[in-house]
Every structure is written in C-alpha cells, then in structure tokens.
Amino acid sequence: MRAKFLRRSDEPPVSVILPYKEGDPVNNIYLCENDELIVVTGEGIGYARIVGALCAKNDWLVFVDSDAVYPQGYIPKIKKFIRKFGDYFSVFATQRIGGILENPPPLRLFTYEHGLIVRRDEFMMRCLEFLLSDHLPRDDIGGYFTDAMPIPVIYYHGLTTGETYKFTTLLSMGIAGLLSLIIFIIMKNYK
C-alpha cells in the first residue's frame, strides 16, 4: 500500500497501521499531512497490528488491509467522527463492502481489524487481554472490539480467505454436479 498525502492537515492526526506480506497488492491510501503510515511485516495479522500500535506516535489508530481499497476521503471522514464523538467512544468501525457470500457481512462486521479505529490507550489495554488469551499468531484481534461504534464510512474489500474457500468449494461442487449430469444424459442417450 502506498501513502498519498492530501494537501491539508486535519485534526486529529492518526496512525494508519498496515500489516503487509510480500506479494500483497499495492493500493493507495490517502492520508492527511499530519498522519503517519506504519507498515509492519511479521508473524501474523494480530502480531503486526500490535507491533504497529507500539510504534504509533498518534493517539488514534486506523487499521487498514493491503488488499482493501479505501476511497480518497476515507481518512478525513474518519477524523470527522473522531472529532465529533471521540470524547464519548474509543472504538469505531467503518463499513466493509465487498465479498460474495457475505456482502455485507452482517454478523462479522467487527471481527475484522481493517476498518477499525481505536484510541491508542484503549487498544493497548485490550491487547493485554489478547496476549493473555489462548490464541495463534495469525489470530485476528477484532473480536476484542465488538463494542465499536459503527460509522457510515465505507471501504471495499474483496473476498476474504474464508469466502474464497467457500466460493471455490461451491464452484467445484457445481462443476462436479454438472459433469455428472452431462455423463448421465450421455449414458442415457447412448443406451
């Protein structure tokens, strides 16, 4: 993901955290002049997000994903909600659009960290719970933020790994069923 900077500086400054692995797509994220982009490579998404938060200089953390597409006004719109409601809420969640089987994913809206905006001190406190729990290095930490205030800021994320697996399974079952039907018709007409 490449950072492109908008001309203006907008309060409050945010730290945008991106877990990245070799081969991930390179999309643009538009930041304000006073923001920072922290790219972390590592052992897993949860790990990368925690390391990114530890490196962050700003009070608000915005979690993004390398294979998601964020519109140009994404960060300024988030900042608008932080300014308006940041004294009352410490966790926000933007809306994911995309995927085939779960579009939008109504039951999983807050289980992804990308699209999550959290005050840094709140994130660190909840990370302690995550680190003390029984988890795998790849585990996502989004489950610790189910109380996020949803805000009407949208980004696009294509199929997740789980959705891809379900889609390819259904597709292969459909192809197998279609081939069986063709063979059945051929055999029936052959006799």
Keywords:
191 residues; alpha/beta; Spore Coat Polysaccharide Biosynthesis Protein SpsA, Chain A; seven-stranded mixed sheet; 4 helices; 9 strands
Q: Helix segment count?
A: 4
Count of separate structural domains = 2
CATH class category name of the largest domain: Alpha Beta
**For the report, how would you describe the main beta sheet?**
7 strands, mixed
Terminal Cα separation, in Å? Answer: 60 Å
Specify Rg, calculated over alpha carbons. Answer: 20 Å
Report the portion of residues in β strands: 15-25%
CATH fold type of the largest domain:
Spore Coat Polysaccharide Biosynthesis Protein SpsA, Chain A
Structural shape: elongated
Sequence of secondary-structure elements: EEEEHEEHEEHEH
Structural commentary:
The protein has 191 residues and is α/β, with parallel strands linked by helices. It has two domains: 2-158, Alpha-Beta Complex (Spore Coat Polysaccharide Biosynthesis Protein SpsA, Chain A); 159-191. It has helices spanning 45-55, 74-85, 120-132, 161-190; strands at residues 2-5, 14-19, 28-31, 36-40, 60-63, 68-69, 91-97, 116-119, 149-157. A seven-stranded mixed beta sheet has the order 4-2-5-8-7-9-6. Strands 1-3 form a two-stranded parallel ribbon. Residues 101-111 have low confidence and may be disordered.
